[in-house]
Structures are given as structure tokens and as C-alpha cells.
Amino acid sequence: DFVAGLGEGVDKRMSLNLDVDPALAAHGLAVSMGKSRGVGSKDASVYVVASKAYRGSFLARALDANGTEIGRSKVDVEFAADDAQYVNFTFNDEMDSQLVRTYALSLR
User: Fold this and answer.
1) 26: Cβ contacts below 8 Å, ≥ 6 apart
2) d(CA 62, CA 97)
3) pLDDT (tens digit, 9 = 90+) per residue, 8-45?
């Protein structure tokens, strides 16, 4: 139980606050979770489920407590119908990940 509780605590600490653009749902895409790639990491990962085929780009913007953008990462993706995958975003080394409060995810 201790190990399971410890794992849950780490999972919660690595979870991201996500603001997902409704345009994803209009394209048959749903985000089920987002996580940091590790303590102190500048990388983020979101799990995306596609009910329809989609090919394009995702944009993740890192926002501070005031809603000001402090980082940006764009990733090209391709999903088949009834597909799912983790989408990994890498932010610049200059971004201070400790200042990030929310990630805004949209299509490009």
C-alpha cells in the first residue's frame, strides 16, 4: 500500500493542468491526460485518442500564473481512425518549468 500510495503521489505531482481547445473534439480527438516527463523536465506528454483519422500539428503553449505564455512547442501528428498515442512536446531550455501553471493545447 505504501508503494502504491507513493506512486499515486508522484503521478499527481507530474500531472499537468491542461486547457484543451474545443477544435480537437470537432476533429474527433480527445485528450485523456497530460504529464510532465519528469521532475525538472521541460518536456510534457499528453495522451490523445482519435475517433477519426487526423493529420496535422498540435501546439502546446506553457502559461504562467497570470496566463502569460512563457513557452511554446509544436508537434506534427498523424492518427488513424480509432487510434491513440502519446504526443510529446519539448520546450526550450530557457523556459522555467517551475513557473508553468497551465498548458494550452490547440491545433495548428
Assistant:
1) none
2) 8
3) 443 445 578 889 999 999 999 999 888 776 556 688 89
Grid cell of 96 as nine digits: 522555467
Q: Encode pLDDT of 55-107 as tens digits.
A: 999 999 999 999 999 999 999 999 999 999 999 999 998 998 889 899 999 99
Angle subtended at Cα 33 by Cα 30 and Cα 38, rounded to the nearest 5 degrees:
145
Distance (Å, whole) CA 19 – CA 94: 23
Q: Please tell me the distance from the alpha carbon of residue 7 to that of residue 56, in angstroms, as a whole number.
A: 34
Place of cell 504529464: 35
CB 70 within 8 A of CB 100: yes
